[in-house]
Amino acid sequence: MKNLLDNASKAYYEGSDPFLTDDQFDRLAELHNYHDVGYTPTDGIRHTYQMYSLQKCFDILDSPFGVLSSNVVLSVKLDGAAVALTYVNGSLQGALTRGDGIHGRDILDKMLHIAPNTIGLHGIVQVTGEIVAPERIENARNYAAGALNLKNISEFMDREILFYAHGMEDDGDFMGDVEYGDTWQTRMEFLKDHDFNTVHTHMTDGLPKDGLVYRINDTYDFMARGFTAKHPRGAFALKERQKGVVTTLEDVTWQVGKSGVVSPVAILTPTKVGDAWVSRATLHNLDYIRELNLEIGCKVEIIRSGEIIPRVVRRV
Questions:
Q1: Does residue 124 share a domain with residue 221?
Q2: Residue 165 CB-density burial (10 A; 0-12 exposed, 13-18 middle, 19+ buried)
Q3: Residue 227: Cβ within 10 Å count
Q4: By the 8 A CB rule, do 240 and 58 touch?
Q5: How many Cβ atoms are within 10 Å of 205's Cβ, its own excluded?
Q6: What are the pLDDT digits (tens) for 80-97?
Q7: Cα gap 223→259, rounded to integer Å
Q8: Pick from 216, 238, 260: which residue ends a domain?
Q9: In which residue ranges of the chain is pLDDT below 70?
Q10: Which listed site, 3, 30, 74, 232, has its alpha carbon 20 to 30 Å from 67?
Q11: What domain count does the chain have?
């Protein structure tokens, strides 16, 4: 199962064709205690500041800190491709994909066209955010992330994509430029004043989202809480857990996909998942069947995301 989730994570962050939806990946990762985030690119460059992922929370009552404090702010979690921009003495000098959070792939040639080229701060500043496409575009996240892999800049410029900032790290100069204290909100307002779209200051209607983000607003308090190896302790993402439905695995057949790949399909006792009746679900490959220890006649849990073909996520 680890190999499957590793491959799914790589496909997701590379912007290639993911074979698991977010809901499916989250459910499998939870069931199999999988915590790895991102992938290490072979041509990776080190980030100026580590890009941490957000701890996921599926019940607000289990949140890592209280959310009713006036020091906690709420924003949407955009579903795009995370990137980091590095400004040196006000000039955009580096842009990387998220990668594994420590190393990313160079995309400066593309980001120079869609992100502000200057920022009104001296020193070193890293602005993090999401490359997103309108949700009316089919597979909007893949469309946006895939743009970062294009070799031709003209093709990249033809893509309908935007950069939305959601974070800013610096080497200390920002404090001298703020009047009302150093907070996440004042940093987002600062970025807005320097021609950035941000998740705090700009409308996000029509953009794909996959949760809400709660964070400690005061920068000193946020930093004082520290970080794990992967997550900040001062922020988390609230996501909706998709409920699975239990049914019986009656048979397994094999089908040839458009690419010529032969893959197994579960034949299930028909059951209603959401608003649709389901009698078939993808099983990905033979290793997937072995990892889940599936047998004809066993009980399985299935989930379905939107109009995506259902998947078996575990043996019950």
A1: yes
A2: buried
A3: 12
A4: yes
A5: 9
A6: 999 999 999 889 999 999
A7: 48
A8: 238
A9: 1-42, 173-180, 242, 275, 305-309
A10: 30
A11: 2
Using CA atoms, how far apart are residues 145 and 126, in angstroms rounded to an integer? 20
What's 52's domain CATH number? 3.30.470.30
User: For residue 113, which of 73, 78, 156 has the smallest C-alpha distance?
Assistant: 156
Asked whether residue 40 is domain-assigned, the answer is no
Same domain, 232 and 258: no
Q: Which of 232, 190, 193 is CA-nearest to residue 65?
A: 232
Domain C-terminal end among 179, 205, 238:
238
DSSP alpha helices (H): ranges in the chain?
2-14, 22-31, 108-114, 140-147, 153-158, 184-193, 219-225, 286-291
- pLDDT tens for 198-245 read 999 999 999 999 899 999 999 999 999 999 988 999 999 998 776 788
Pairing between β-strand 45-46 and β-strand 209-216 as defined by DSSP bridges: unpaired
Which of 100, 66, 99 lies closest to 236, judged by CA? Answer: 66
Spatial distance between the Cα atoms of 291 and 94, rounded to a whole number of angstroms: 41
Which spans in 117-259 are helix H?
Answer: 140-147, 153-158, 184-193, 219-225
223 falls within a domain:
yes
- Is residue 96 assigned to a domain? yes
In degrees and rounded to multiples of 5, residue 138 shows phi and psi of -60, 135
Rounded Cα distance between 202 and 111, Å, is 19
Are residues 52 and 133 located together in one domain of the fold? yes
Of 155, 309, 313, 185, the C-alpha closest to 245 is 313
Active site residues: 77
Classified as helix, coil or strand, 155 is helix
Residues 152 and 284 grouped into a single domain: no
What is the percent of the chain with per-residue pLDDT over 90, rounded to a whole number? 49
234 shares a domain with 165: yes
